[in-house]
Amino acid sequence: MWIGRLIGYILIAVLGGKFARSVGGGGDALWHKFPAAKVYLFRRLVPKWAIGQAFGDLIFLRTDFQRDRATITHELVHVEQWHRHGWQFAFRYLLASFRAGIKHGWQHAYRQNKFEVEAYAREHEV
Ligand SMILES: [Zn+2]
To answer: Which residues hold their Cβ within 5 A of ligand 1, which is an ion?
Structure first.
């Protein structure tokens, strides 16, 4: 999805792309579905608690999680969600966090976001 890719490349440009490279692993079925998906490894993402983040076909992943199949599959589910919703996904995701925060309390806004619920539920798919 071009807008996600654009956000991703801007982030690489801002954060510096030297410490990024692509990897495979995890999400075997989903890699076949999204052959253009790429993983970029970062020593640390901002904010610090973040492990991975997908922008379109680009997955940013903390280096210490590069062998973590469940995490990679989780991020590939987000790639699928970007494909499903197109550029609207960024807004839908924020809206879903807002809804989850109102419904379940703000400390659960991330984990109860319907897109995260799906990604966590499917992260053991291979
Ligand atoms: Zn997620």
So the answer is: 116, 119
C-alpha 126 – ligand 1 centre gap (Å): 17
Q: Quick count: other Cβ atoms within 10 Å of Cβ 119?
A: 21
Half-sphere exposure of 105 (CA within 13 A, CB side): 2
DSSP per position, 31-47: HHH-TT-EEEEES--SS
Lookup: tokens for 5? 């890719």
Q: What is the pLDDT of residues 52-82, one digit of tens each?
A: 889 888 888 888 888 888 999 999 999 999 9
CA 39–ligand 1 middle distance (angstroms): 14
* Sequence-separated (6 or more) residues with CB below 8 Å from residue 3: 56, 86, 87, 90
